[in-house]
Amino acid sequence: MRSKKLPLLVLGAAIGAVLTGTLLLKDTVAQNAAPAPATRVAVCDIVQVFNNYNRAKDLQVEFEKRMDQTKAENEKRIKAIEAIQMELEGFKPGTKDYEDRYNKIQRLTIDRKAWLQYEEMLGRNEQLRLTQEMYKDAMNTIAQVAKDRAIDIVLYREMRDVPTADISELLSQIERRKVLYNTAGADITEEVLARMNRAYRGGK
C-alpha cells in the first residue's frame, strides 16, 4: 500500500515546488518592474480665455461698429419710407400719384426687410466663423502648453459660482461643476491666455 502512495506524494511535492517557484518568479518580476508614471492633470477656464483674448476684444469693437452702421442705415431707410408716406397722405386714393407712392412704399418696405435679414445673416455667419477660429486657437494653445509642461489631461474649470439666493440656480451651479478642487499650479489659464495674446500681437 505504501508503494502505491509514494508516487502520489512525490508528484504532489513536485507540483508544489513548481508552483512555489512560479510565485517567487512573479514576485521578483513585479519588484523589478518600473512603476507606472503618474498622470498629470491641469485645468483651464476657457471662458476666461475668450473674455480676455485681445482678438476677441478687437472683434467685439468691430461688431459694435458694424451694428451701429446697420442701425444708421436702417433708420435712414425708415425715414425715406415715412417721407413718402407723408406724401401719400396728400393724394386722393385711386389717383396715379397715390398709386405710385403706395407701390413705392411697399417696394421700399420689402427691400428694407430683406436687406436687414441679409445683414443679420452675414453678421451671424461671420461671428460663427471667427468664434470657431478663436476656439481652435485656444485648443491648440492649450495642447502646446500641456505638451511643454508634460501634462496628460486638461480639464475645463468653470468660472467661480455667482452667489445666489435661488435654490434652483444653486443646484444648477452644483450640477455644472466639473472640477471641485485644484491647486494654483494646476491652473494653466493665464499661461494659455498670455501665449494667445502674444501670438495675436505678433500676427497683427
Word description of this protein:
By secondary structure, the chain is mainly α. It has a single domain, classed as 2-Layer Sandwich (Protein Binding, DinI Protein, Chain A), CATH 3.30.910.20. It is 74% helix and 4% strand. It is built from six helices and two strands. A two-stranded parallel ribbon has the order 1-2. Helix 3 runs antiparallel to helix 4 (96-148). It is elongated and about 105 Å long. 7% of the residues are buried. The model has no long low-confidence stretch (mean pLDDT 86).
CATH H-level superfamily:
Skp domain
What is the third-level CATH name, the topology?
Protein Binding, DinI Protein, Chain A
Q: Total strand count, please?
A: 2
For the biggest β-sheet, the strand order reads 1-2
Number of domains: 1
Task: Indicate the low-confidence ranges by residue numbers.
Answer: none
Proportion of residues in extended strands:
under 5%
Categorize the overall geometry: elongated
Order of helices and strands: HEHHHEHH
Compute the number of helices.
6
Structural class: mainly alpha
**How much helix, percentage-wise, in residues?**
over 70%
Short description:
By secondary structure, this protein is mostly helical.
Fold blueprint:
Layout: H1 2-32, E1 41-44, H2 46-52, H3 54-88, H4 96-148, E2 153-156, H5 167-176, H6 189-203
Parallel strand pairs: 1-2
